[in-house]
Amino acid sequence: MALTREHLRDYLFNADERAVYHAYPRQIADHVRTDYRTMLDLLADSMLLGDVTLHWDIECPACKMQDHFTDSLETAPEGDVTCKACGNTFGPHEDVLVTFSVHPALRQLSGAASDPDYRAEIARNFEPTTGHELLTQQTFRDWAQNQPLPPGQSLEVRRVGLLFTDLSGSTALYARRGDPRAYHLVRDHYDVLTGAINENGGSVVKTIGDGIMAAFTDGLHALKAALDGHIRLADFNGRSNLSPDDCLMLKAGIHAGPAIMVTLNDRLDYFGQTVNLASRIEGISQPGNVTISQPVFDEPGVRELLVDYPVEAAKVAIKGFDDPVIVNRFRVLSEDE
After folding, report:
1. Mean pLDDT lowest among 83-92, 218-227, 293-302
2. Is residue 112 in a domain?
3. What are the φ/ψ torsions at residue 238 (nearest 5 degrees)?
4. Given 130, 164, 179, which residue is the final one in a domain?
5. List of residues 6+ apart from 9 with CB closer than 8 A
6. Residue 316 and residue 325 in contact, taking contact as beta carbons nearer than 8 Å
7. Which domain holds residue 53?
8. Cα-to-chain-centroid distance, residue 117
């Protein structure tokens, strides 16, 4: 039986009040017996509908104590913070976690809900959800556009998997089909890829020309989305009865590493060398191909995922980078598929 909002509401209303105060998403998922990604989606809906409150918390990297950060990105503190337990000073952007509490409109909690011993036990038994992990959920990312970081503020992301895509031959498509028809095909391709990205644990950061930039918690999920996107786009070509000349062909590039998240043009965006390299790798990819950096290729699970693909490693010169970069490229679909 699929978990519904009503099931979650019932849990929030009847569970031990300590379990619904600054609760971990994995903790709730375990208690109601559902998978983690489903719980994140449900918490997103419940937050927007007023059943739960989202908290941004910080964890001291020295003593691991967690403390309340803010209920809104807009009120993120500037500068460093000092741990109340051990006196360690660190940037609030370094270890941002997210927790959820039952909304007061649904249930009023007593002071007993804030039990340090209980929270410590939960922290020992369940992995927390990072702020960046939450923002790879499309619903949360869309919501967060209305809560931008303050000017000049940023969040340091320890690792983000970035997927850049582009359509091959779209300029010629516009010339052959005319702007209105070609535009509709390109727009439909966005829907196809967005589905692949969201269902593989990522979110669309922005569109760039006829391409997409998407963010994931790691390179493996970005790769899964790229493979899925190629296959879905080929299916779309078939369902749309497109001629071989008009078939949409995807190019994809993936890299993973640290980045900076800021608000630019009212949108949460990423900056840094990881972003630059991911974009450049897409630029050297070919139609029907996926090209990934060596750090992504070395991630757990990637080689197993690519066991049926003939992967070719190459050392290439990348504009803007002093040293050659090792990339791994392979064809998902041939140009006649």
Report:
1. 83-92
2. yes
3. -65, -45
4. 130
5. 46, 51, 106
6. yes
7. 5-130
8. 32
Whether 148 contacts 74, CB under 8 Å = yes
What percentage of the chain's residues is helix, strand, coil (to nearest 5)? 40, 25, 35
pTM of the model: 0.86
Do 88 and 163 lie in one domain? The reply is: no
Residue 255 sits in a domain whose CATH number is 3.30.70.1230
154: left (phi over 0), alpha (psi -120 to 50) or beta: beta
Q: What is the pLDDT of residues 98-118, one digit of tens each?
A: 899 999 999 999 999 999 899
Least confident of 7-16, 29-38, 72-81, 318-327: 72-81
Half-sphere exposure of 169 (CA within 13 A, CB side): 15
Q: What is the DSSP string of 195-238?
A: HHHHHTT-EEEEEETTEEEEEESSHHHHHHHHHHHHHHHHHHHH
Both 174 and 288 in one domain: the answer is: yes
Number of domains in the chain: 2
The model's pLDDT over 32-80, given as tens digits with 9 standing for 90+, comes to: 999 898 898 889 889 888 999 988 877 776 776 666 666 666 655 556 7
Question: Among residues 311, 337, 313, 336, which one has the least CA distance to residue 325?
Answer: 313
Which H or E run includes 323? none
- Quote the percentage of the chain above a pLDDT of 70: 84
**What is the secondary structure of 162-190 as a DSSP string?**
EEEEEEETHHHHHHHH-HHHHHHHHHHHH
Distance CA 54, CA 59 (A): 16
Strand 52-59: give its sheet, edge to edge: 66-70, 52-59, 96-102, 129-130
DSSP for 69-81, written as a single string: EES-GGGPPPS-E
Q: Is the dihedral of CA 39, 41, 42, 48 positive or negative?
A: positive
What secondary structure does DSSP assign to 264-295, as a single string? ETTEEEEESHHHHHHHHHHHT--TTEEEEEHH
Residue 201 and residue 300 in one domain: yes
Residue matched to tokens 């303050």 = 150
